[in-house]
Every structure is written in structure tokens, then in C-alpha cells.
Amino acid sequence: MVRITALLLATALPMAAAPQDKFEIRMDSSEVPEMKEWADKAKEAMEKCYAPFAEKLKSQGFTPPRVVSVKIRKDMKGIAGTAGSRIEAAAEWFRKRPDDTGALIHELAHVIQSYPKYYPVWLVEGIADYLRFWMYEPESRRPRLNPQRIRYQDGYQPVGAFLAWLEKQYDPQIVNKLNAACRETRYKDDLFKDCTKKPLDELWDEFKASLGKK
After folding, report:
1. What is the per-residue pLDDT for 3?
2. Fewer Cβ neighbours under 10 Å: the N or C end of the chain?
3. Domain architecture of the chain: domains with CATH
């Protein structure tokens, strides 16, 4: 699931070359035909994200789903959710917040992740929000974090920011490495030390300290 955050439709995503194999986003707004124009724009945003996300989350022997189905549900509660390569979105939420296309981008990230296990939850959601906020949303819409209130165990935006910081400070490939470990069900906290020579908790404290300096 996604955090309750309303953000702009505009994307700052740098476009990468499309993979050789074609992909398709199948958008179904038949339950709410009045939202077709919004759904078509959301589909375009997802199409732009697919290839860069697939490239960022590539791993040996893995091919992401080539067909992604998105259903806008008239009576669905909540925001959006993903099962396999199928995404469902609550019409009421997006009708009231048409600028929150990023919520669907987060779900597209889950489709491309395709991890056999939802583990560790905080990292799975953190990687998805990393893709959303650091590859899709404009920089001005990135989360502003209070270092006194965040924990990496909570995942989502704080962990997305943490991963972006780790890429700059320690290892430009750390997201790809962590993604591969999650996909191959071999994740362990020691992977952070393998990549940076520092344990996870120490890195998190350093990250929070860096927020306090801004």
C-alpha cells in the first residue's frame, strides 16, 4: 500500500531507453467512465516509468511482467494495492486527489519488484518510494523528514530518502544490490555492511544526523 500523500502529476523522471521486449499498461476505467481522461494521463505516466524502473531493479535472470493491468474501482476503499501484475485503485481517492498519480507509480514499482516474499517490509516499501520520489516526482516534492521522528523500520519515504543518501555517500549500486537480494530471498541486514563497511544502525544514525545539518 501507499502513504497518504497528494503530489503533482508532473514528472521529473529522466527517460531511459525502452527494453527490447515490449510492455503494456492496460488501464481500465470502465467502472468510472467520467475518470477516463485522468486514467489515460496516469497510464502515460506509468508508461514513462516502466523502462527506467525495470533498469534500476534489474537482476540476473529476471524479467519483469510485460503486461500490467490497472483497474480503477468505483467502490474500493483506501488508495491502491498490488497483487502480482495487477493494480487496483480507489476511484474516490483519485477523484478527490487527481494530482496523486505518484500513488500508482509506487504500485508500479511493486509490480516490477516482483519479490517472492514481502520481506523485509520496510525495505520493500522503501525501495518503492525511492523509485517514486527520486525517479518520478519532481525534486520539490521529495519528503521533508524530521530526524527525531523517523525509523527505518517504518519504511516508505524515510527509507526512500535513506537509500538515495546511501547512493551518494557510499555505493551508487546499493539499491540494485538490495533489490537483487530481496528478489532472491537472501536479504540480511549485514548486506548494508557489505556495501558500505558500516552496519545498518550506524548508517541510519549518520543519515539522521545529515538531515539535522540541512
Report:
1. 36
2. C
3. 24-113 (3.40.50), 121-212 (no CATH)
